[in-house]
Every structure is written in structure tokens, then in C-alpha cells.
Design goal:
This protein has 275 residues and is mainly α. It is 70% helix and 0% strand. The chain has 12 helices and no strands. The longest helix is centred in the first third of the chain and has 32 residues, at 64-95.
Length: 275
């Protein structure tokens, strides 16, 4: 006898997977399809003459490798700096209690509710006055500040579930604060740290507003699509180049999720729900 409930679950899972994966497949096939075959009728779901010309054009004429390098500098530095800061901040909020710390934590979490466009104009003027507009340090500071609230929330909740008695026992044995952090706290926080690093990497890689609004000459992948050349006097969008650039942005995210799926789920559950 057929299990109707099991069949329904598999059918629903297939539909959800199709809805999620088909756009990714379409972007990839469009990136390797010659421009003249993109709008063929009837629709060809497998390119007859696959080519990497779009990727070569991006490398040779659009400066793809320069954008990749700038992205790695900004995103990599932001993720590393924010992780170090948030580990220390989460430890302070989790292990020490006072009204001042509670208010500070509330302000940090409240900043997550403020849309970036609200503070864009005054922050734009401020960055220009201190000569950080369109600079790597300026972008790194803005990226870092945008991901700190989420990181502190996850790490603080995770750290609150680690018994303080473990550190107290190490302190009795003569371990200093730095030694307790390095040899006890951080190793126990690895699932949460891995989750924060992965999610922040994806968030920074997809960040469109900050590099578009606060930089002119520093080119990153998230804003590269709006800088692609148009075709002819009618300014026709070259969808093969758009698809290729989109796939360059999406592919690292897919790899990260496939490799670190378990760490992402375990870290989110441990850092979001307190026992």
C-alpha cells in the first residue's frame, strides 16, 4: 500500500527544490549561451553551442579579476575584523551584568532595525569629511558595522549557554582571562563562530548599497552588474554578460553553503534559542 503522506512530502520537496534551483540553472545556462541564441523560440533549455566567451569578455574588458581582488580585500577584512570584535563583545555581554551593558546591547540590536538608506546622507557627508569616502578602510568600516549586531546576537546567546563554572575551574588553576578565552571559550564557540563567519561572508558579498553609495573607483562584484556595458544606441542590456557576472557572484555562495550546511544550521539553532 502506498504511503500517501510520504509521496506528498517528496512531491512538495521536489516542487520547492525546483523553484529554488531552476533560476540558478537558468542563470548558468544563459551565461554559456551565445547572445544570438538567448531569445530563440521555442525556448532551448540546453545551449546548442555552449561557450565561455562571456566570462572571457568580463576578464578582458570589464576587469573581473580586479573586482574579485577588491571584493576579497573588503569582504575578507570585514569578516575577520568583525568576528574578532564580536567574540570579545559577546563575552563581555554574556559574562558581565550591569544596566550600562544591557542598554549598550539594546542599542546594538536596535541598530539592526534601522534601514541603511535612513542614515545614508549624514554618513555620506561624514565619510567625506574624514577622507574615508571611496577608500578600502572606509568600506571595511561600513561593512564591519553592518554585520556586528547580528554577530553579537548569535555569539552572545551561544556563549550564555556555556557554563561559567568551566572558566572558574580554569581560573582556580591559574589561567588568565586571555588564556581562558583562547583555550576554553573560543574552542567551545566554534559552531557559532563558523556560522557567523559564513553568513557574514554571504551578507557582505551580496551587499549592494554600501559599495554603490560610498565608493566610486573601488569596484566590487555586487555592483559590477550595473557597470556592464550596454549594446548599441538603444542601450540594450547584454543578458549573457549579466548572467555570467551573476553566476560569478552566486557560485562562491553555493560552494560555501554546500560545504558548511551542518555548521550553519547547528550554529543558528544554538545561538538563537536559549535553553
Amino acid at each position: 500500500m502506498l504511503n500517501v503522506s510520504l509521496i506528498f512530502k517528496w512531491l512538495l520537496a521536489f516542487i520547492v527544490v525546483f523553484i529554488i534551483l531552476f533560476p540558478l540553472y537558468w542563470i548558468f545556462t544563459s551565461s554559456i549561451t551565445p547572445p544570438g541564441e538567448l531569445f530563440s523560440s521555442p525556448i532551448d533549455y540546453l545551449p546548442d553551442h555552449p561557450t565561455l566567451s562571456s566570462y572571457l569578455y568580463l576578464i578582458q574588458h570589464v576587469g573581473l579579476m580586479e573586482k574579485v581582488g577588491s571584493t576579497l580585500i573588503v569582504v575578507g577584512s570585514s569578516v575577520i575584523i568583525s568576528t574578532m570584535i564580536c567574540i570579545l563583545a559577546a563575552y563581555g555581554f554574556a559574562r558581565y551584568q550591569s544596566k550600562g551593558l544591557t542598554v549598550a546591547l539594546m542599542f546594538i540590536l536596535f541598530s539592526m532595525l534601522i534601514p541603511a538608506v535612513v542614515t545614508a546622507r549624514p554618513l555620506y557627508d561624514f565619510m567625506r569629511k574624514i577622507n574615508l569616502f571611496d577608500t578600502y578602510p572606509g568600506l571595511i568600516i561600513l561593512y564591519t558595522s553592518s554585520i556586528i549586531p547580528f554577530s553579537v546576537l548569535i555569539l552572545k546567546n551561544f556563549l550564555s549557554d556555556i557554563p561559567a563554572s568551566i572558566e572558574e575551574a580554569a581560573e582556580i588553576d591559574g589561567a588568565s582571562l586571555i588564556q581562558r578565552l583562547v583555550y576554553i571559550v573560543i574552542p567551545l564557540m566554534r559552531p557559532a563562530i563558523a556560522t557567523v563567519v559564513i553568513i557574514n561572508f554571504i551578507t557582505c558579498l551580496n551587499n549592494f548599497f554600501i559599495p554603490l553609495f560610498y565608493a566610486n573607483n573601488i569596484l566590487v562584484l555586487s555592483t559590477a552588474i550595473v557597470q556592464l556595458p550596454l549594446k548599441g544606441s538603444l542601450h540594450i542590456v547584454q543578458w549573457d554578460l549579466v548572467s555570467a557576472m551573476g553566476w560569478v557572484i552566486i557560485f562562491p555562495i553555493i560552494i560555501f553553503i554546500l560545504i558548511f550546511e551542518k555548521q550553519i544550521m547547528s550554529g543558528i539553532m544554538a545561538g538563537s534559542v536559549k535553553n
